[in-house]
Each structure stands twice: as structure tokens, then as C-alpha cells.
Amino acid sequence: MKKSLLAVALLSTLSTGVLANQAGDILVRGGATMVSPDSAKAGVALDGAATPLSISVDDNTQLGLNLVYFFDSNWAIELLAATPFTHDVVLHDPSGVTESVYGANLDGAKLAEVTHLPPTLSALYYFNTGTAFKPYVGVGVNYTIFFDEKFTPTPDSVGFDNLELDGSFGLSAQIGADFELSKNWSINVSARYIDIGTKATFDLNDPFNVGLEGKGSATVDVDPMVYSVMLGYKF
What we know:
single chain, Porin, 8-stranded antiparallel beta barrel, 3 helices, 60% strand, OMPW, signal
């Protein structure tokens, strides 16, 4: 009987207001964040004319950080930050154009590396569950800045140069949940979609005098899913 009363008391503690978010609470989280871009390939144009080439961007995982400020038990604002993400850009050449021109097939080759930061500001709505499990939904706005864009040695040696990617504004949407381990500590999981689109431009020189040169471009819809698992501390 005593064990049953103790179990009831513990469950009651988990559903009391001491675990509820309150106005002025600040939640700091840190953990792993993976950016998984849309797998669709972006066509490459040269001097505005379409080519058989296309590119895609791979996944990357970094340290994710975010800060949440609560206006009341339901509404909060969240800032997502992270250490810079670096993605491989892969070249796709199913028709073998690069082999016929350069004598080397670059299909599936790592064309370049790009680094970016995707800070995102979101409004969150927490659902009242009366327990330590606190699910939420959110919408926000993102600005992604790209930097340190560079071609890898093989593409660079055949004339690819001066890679640049434009910054991107876009909306985001997410679902997530905190599970409170104690009054201050919690574990968070979340998944969000971010609308990121950028235009990549580059120069294609003609080191082999084959008549293939000009200004290249590709419109890349990165549009990643962003997954996070974090440990949080509430002040």
C-alpha cells in the first residue's frame, strides 16, 4: 500500500505546475543538429544555356544551439543557431560530357564545398499536457549566409573557378517536444523544414582550349529538413 501511495505521489509531482513553463523562463539547449538538404538535383547552365550537368548537396551534422524565452506556459520565441555547416556539392554528369571534353568522367565527383550558417527565429506554441512531456509546434523566419565556397582540386584543374552562393531568406516550420528530467533539465527532439534557395554562380575557364568556357550558374533549392536532439537547461 505504501509503495502504491509513493507511486501516485511521484506521478502527481510530474503533473503539477512546478514543471509548467512560466513567463520569463529561459531555456538554453545544446546538442546535435543535422541539416539534410532536398535530394533533388539542380540543373547547371552555362552562359544562360542549359547543360546536361546537375548538382546536389549532401547532409551535415554540427553542434546545434538554441535559446527559448517563454511569454507564458504556451507561447515562446526561439532562436536557432549552430556551428557552421559544411556541405559537399556533388556533380552529376550521366551523359559523360566531362569525360568527352576533359578525358575524365566527373559524374558523382565532389565538385565543391560550401559552408553556411542558418540562424532561424521562431514563434513556438506549447500544448498543455499536465506532464513532463511538452510537445510544441512552431513557425519562423530564416536567413542563411553562405561563405568559404570553394571547388575541389579536380574541378579546379579543369577550369571551374570563383564559386559564389547568394544568401537566402525563407520561412520555417517545426514540431518538437521537451521531456523534463527535473525542474531545470530536459531533453529536446525536433524536426523542422526550412525554405532555403540560393543561386550558385561560377566561372568555367578553358585550360585545354576546347572552346568550353563562360559563366556558369545553378538555382539550388536546398530546402532542408533539420533534425535536432538536445539537452536543455531552464533558468
